[in-house]
Each structure stands twice: as structure tokens, then as C-alpha cells.
Specification:
By secondary structure, this protein is an alpha+beta fold. It is built from 2 helices and 8 strands; from the N terminus they run ββαββββαββ. A hairpin with a 7-residue loop joins β3 and β4. The longest helix is centred in the first third of the chain and has 19 residues.
């Protein structure tokens, strides 16, 4: 089995509009919700004649594993109107400390610890929502080769 790997960086990004589903859920239920929500958003975008403008993501507004406040969806090219549980959102502009992690989702906790330590070592502070962007499909990628881009917004 390949060992997980990761690398750190700081990137500046422009604000990006998104289409999302918001939810509160416990960690064990999250994988099922992610699949359902992404399918719902893709179906809705198709009805609008639109497509995702980037990889799927989950935004974490807190780290309470028993009661996670999340947004699940995709970036889109332009702001769109939502319908029902699907709402418009945005990934804010600014500097983000990022980590490209290659490995199984079950091993991602240690990456969060390492990224937090790297941020602290550089004297920065996290300010806001954490994002995980899923760069390949777990349905046809072995767990040790899954790539997740983790992004923590940094305070100015």
C-alpha cells in the first residue's frame, strides 16, 4: 500500500460562485450525504444547461464531528438562482493555505493536524470555512491514489 503524501502552499484566489446544498450532519453519515447532494446539484445544473466549473467540494463551517455544518456542491461559472434545497453560495476571495493530499479519505485527519501546524509555524491564522476539493472520483480511483485539496482561509 502506498503511504499518503501531501504538500503545502499558499494561494490567492478570486471569489467563485457555487451551487450547494447546506446541511447539519454527523461524520458517519457524511459520505452518503455527499454523494446524494452532488448528484442533486449536477442534475439541477443539467436542467439549467450549466456545468460545474471545478471539482466537487465540501465546506466545513465547524469541526464538531457530531454536528457538522457543511455545504456540498460545485463552483459554477456565474451566479445562478437556486431551487429548493439547492442554493447559491460563494467561495470567498483571499489567501488560502492549501494542502494537496494523496491518500485515503480515512487518513485525512493527520493532514489537518499537519496543515494547522504548518500555518502556525509561519505565524498565520485561520479565518473562516475549511474546504475540501475532491480532485478524482472514488468510484474509479483506489483509495491510496485519491487526491484532496484542503484549503484554509488565512486572516489578513
Amino acid at each position: 500500500m502506498t503511504r499518503p503524501s501531501y504538500s503545502f502552499d499558499v494561494v490567492s484566489q478570486k471569489a467563485r460562485p457555487t451551487m450547494i446544498v447546506r446541511a447539519r450532519i454527523s461524520l458517519p453519515q457524511l459520505p452518503i450525504l455527499i454523494g446524494q447532494s452532488l448528484g442533486t446539484v449536477v442534475e439541477y445544473l443539467g436542467r439549467l444547461g450549466e456545468h460545474p466549473a471545478g471539482p466537487p467540494f465540501v465546506a466545513y463551517h465547524n469541526q464538531d464531528m457530531a454536528d457538522l455544518a457543511v455545504e456540498i456542491g460545485f463552483p459554477v461559472e456565474r451566479p445562478l438562482k437556486g431551487q429548493g434545497a439547492i442554493v447559491a453560495g460563494a467561495i470567498p476571495a483571499g489567501r488560502h493555505a492549501t494542502c494537496l493530499f494523496t491518500g485515503a479519505y480515512s487518513e485525512i485527519g493527520s493532514v489537518y493536524e499537519a496543515l494547522n501546524q504548518w500555518i502556525a509555524d509561519h505565524g498565520w491564522q485561520v479565518a473562516g470555512t475549511t474546504y475540501e476539493f475532491y480532485l478524482n472520483d472514488p468510484a474509479n480511483t483506489r483509495p491510496e491514489f485519491l487526491q484532496t485539496l484542503i484549503a484554509f482561509p488565512l486572516a489578513d
